[in-house]
Amino acid sequence: MTLPRWLLAGLLLCSGLQAAELRVCQHDASRYAYRLELIRLILERTTATHGELHVAAAHGVDPPQERCLAQLRAGMVDLAYVPPNAERLRDLRMIPFDLHAGMLGYRLLLIHREDAPSFARVQSLDDLRLLRGGFGSQWSDFPLFALNRLPVVGSSHPENLLAMLTERRFDYYHRALHEAWEEVGDHPERHPELMIEPGLALVYPLPVYFAFNRAEPELRQRFEEGLSLIQADGSFRELFLRHFGEQLRRSQLSQRRLLILQSDLPEGLPAADSRFWLQP
């Protein structure tokens, strides 16, 4: 006898053959390996209290950030990770915990090798304003250039920025510590004309929060509990340093001139706890 489709689906669900899945918007493992591993660690630590939940298999290419957030609002995905702003804090359920512990706010400059003497003379933001940066025009921190009166060339195709820097369309391209090493520092053969500037770093707050649809308060609560657990048992620190510890060491932030940028973040957000990796 052939069972009705609705009855078969119910039997499969009750028998546990269909595991619950968490739909994550940004699932590119090459780009988001750390964040995806962090999600899996949280789910593992909370299985006993909240049940089995697994990250759904990736399908297709990651959408742009704003489309991803639209999918989250519509309930098409369950989780995203994005920098906060006033609109996102109002419309979504966000956990005010920086997944990168403040690290993304420390930015190294990628420059043309021949321009190293010019950057060695930069002592202040006023000096940097004599040079021109390049950046992704759709990225959430792009408006900081205008806010800090820094000349910039914006590109809606950020995959072209390294080539544009090589062609001298602008003077520098600032990247997070791990990005700078992955894109240029560890692979000089890819862009032999470029280098990581050795004496400067830009600094501004750039937290990344877990974001959930407002219709899923239980999921947000589960992640809050999981974050508390992995901070308390040291596994968050272990995961972070396993992914970024070597790049942090090589960046030698304590020996760089730090240029502090004004930020446009909403007021009242908690400061990231960077004490376990940021050496004074």
UniProtKB/TrEMBL annotation:
Matching SUPFAM superfamilies: Periplasmic binding protein-like II
Highest rank taxon of the organism: Bacteria
Keywords attached to this entry: Signal
Region forming the signal peptide: 1-19
Gene3D superfamilies the record matches: Periplasmic binding protein-like II
Protein name in UniProt: Transporter substrate-binding domain-containing protein
Organism: Aquipseudomonas campi
